[in-house]
Amino acid sequence: EVQLVESGGGLVQPGRSLRLSCTASGFTFGDYAMSWVRQAPGKGLEWVGFIRSKAYGGTTEYAASVKGRFTISRDDSKSIAYLQMNSLKTEDTAVYYCTRDLRGTMVRGVIITSWGQGTMVTVSS
Amino acid sequence: NFMLTQPHSVSESPGKTVTISCTGSSGSIASNYVQWYQQRPGSAPTTVIYEDNQRPSGVPDRFSGSIDSSSNSASLTISGLKTEDEADYYCQSYDSSNQAGVFGGGTKLTVL
Q1: Are A111 and B33 an interchain contact pair (Cβ–Cβ within 8 Å)?
Q2: Measured between CB atoms, does A61 come within 8 Å of chain B?
Q3: Would the CB atoms of B103 and A115 count as touching at under 8 Å?
Q4: Nearest-neighbour CA in chain B from A35: distance (Å)
Q5: How many whole angstroms separate alpha carbon A74 and alpha carbon A83?
Q6: Strand positions, DSSP E, chain B
Q7: What pLDDT score does A107 carry?
Q8: Which among A47, A114, B28, B104 is least buried, having the fewest CB atoms inside 10 angstroms?
Q9: Chain-wide mean pLDDT for chain A?
Q10: Residue B1 reports pLDDT greater than 90
Q11: Phi, psi torsion values for A5, nearest 5 degrees
Q12: Residue A62: its chain B contacts at CB < 8 A?
């Protein structure tokens, strides 16, 4: 069974940094691309970014709203994906979900097949 | 930017069939795959349809997806509605121009 467990959320001041982790189990982590998706309180889902598997270069794509501030990385030896969030803004307040893609890279888009339970990030002074 | 538009809400009675639409703003919605996600209150989303019309294991065949190129839209159809189907449903695809995932605004399904 695919399991994705996010951690690292919490309260942080505007302008500061936070790193989220996503610990995966139940599948060969290194074979799959991973995405992060967020949901502001009472709002809809927003795609944050994506990292390909190492077989496809481990390269990343980001939403315009976070490009240059957020960085996704992965440690296949530990089955962990990371979301490094810098220069946080109040509008980054959301539940952040770790997700697994169908394949190791995009084939006609991002295709999410598994979701974690999410971790809450609150950006406030 | 490519956007996906969904109705804000739909409602139907138990046992009936409901269809939720997802319309692409430009280009061809058939160019990239469309996924559908279910989010029950207080829970994380789950995938009910991927690659336009594929069901993950464990999703009942009451859920089906389709693409209509003539209207540049995707649809999620749920037949034999059950009260447990009451949830928010989101469509999702990809903006090739900006290399970014895109979600629709979500549709609240009420089963009453």
Answers
A1: yes
A2: yes
A3: no
A4: 10
A5: 9
A6: 4-5, 9-12, 18-24, 35-39, 46-49, 63-68, 73-78, 87-95, 100-103, 107-111
A7: 87
A8: B28
A9: 97
A10: no
A11: -125, 115
A12: 100
